[in-house]
Design brief:
The protein is built from ten helices and 19 strands. By secondary structure, the protein is an alpha/beta fold. The strands form five sheets. Strands 10-11-12-9-8-14-15 form a seven-stranded mixed β-sheet, with helices on both faces. A five-stranded parallel β-sheet has the order 5-4-3-6-7, with helices on both faces. The protein is globular and about 70 Å long. Bound molecules: 2-aminohexanedioic acid. 2-aminohexanedioic acid binds next to loops.
Length: about 375
Amino acid sequence: MGKILVEGVGEVQEYVDICDYAVGLSRIVGGPILPSERPGHALIEQWNPVGLVGIITAFNFPVAVYGWNNALALVCGDVCLWKGAPTTSLTSVAVTKIIAQVLEDNKLPGAICSLTCGGADIGNAIAKDERVGLVSFTGSTNVGKQVALKVQERFGRKLLELGGNNAIIVFEDADLNLVTPSVLFAAVGTAGQRCTTARRLFLHESIHDDIVQKLSKAYEQVRIGDPWESDTLCGPLHTKQAVEMFLSAIEQAKCEGGTVVCGGKVIDRPGNFVEPTIMTGLAHDSPIVHKETFAPILYILKFKTEEEAFAWNNEVKQGLSSSIFTKDLGRIFRWLGPKGSDCGIVNVNIPTSGAEIGGAFGGEKHTGGGRESGSDSWKHYMRRSTW
Ligand code: UN1
């Protein structure tokens, strides 16, 4: 899909990690034995497989996200039908062949993990089909909503991982050495095409100018180019259409009062290369700041109080990931608590992107409410019977 080599290797490693995790999980999936109010009776919860899991994934994680679903579904006793992105079919085919080989080496049919290629027509068929016990969808909020409505129509189960509009908040007491590399990783990594990409950066007014300057310097040093070369930090956007979206977001941001601090242009070379971009001067509630554009554009805003910064974090429709940088323990606990971040992923002194498979991964509000990967996410892939 165009991501840089180390990120591609990391993604395959994530599949390996979730397989390790799932093997252990397979030994502990279980339900409680509860005291019955009726003498001489037993009250037990058992988890059974949902049957067939339909897995629809996006171009940006063409390996790992299928892995997160596939490994859990298998240890829960389900079979899988995968539809990857139409633009990453070769990756889907390669992964499916590896999994089929493992199954067949163990005298199981390769079709336990089946693949279908195709676009919205196939996604639609999966959403509508009564035989699909769970539909796991990763992609945009718009498409996710259509899928969700179709699945709900038949009272099917769904697991949604949709858009994010993730903010990093930096307070005046933060360890400022952590900030530049963290923001760079979160805003420019995968060329801004992660659902966990940092798109909004709120800087306390006392450190604003200093950080903007340091970040601009760091952005200038980002090596953009062939994603296969080991010293490249930023590869291309996935499609020409993504380049158009990048340009139109920058135009809209300018119309809404934004200024380009660095970047802002398409790079004149074959491929869909754009300059990682920083913009300032926008209001926290400008329409463009509330929109997820799948490109490396970072909107930087200046804040005065904690209350204001937390409110800005929460005021967007999406609710995936969020980060603060601070050393103030009281503030950290306020951020983690009920009046803090309303996101599914709530970080302290680390950036917004980079999921850990042991934790439940997912987000609230228009991000869809699903949880994948670790913790008790396996429950999505099973149905509960109370005996
Ligand atoms: C990560 O940030 O490491 O589409 C994982 C995405 C997510 C996965 C992000 N489903 O970007």
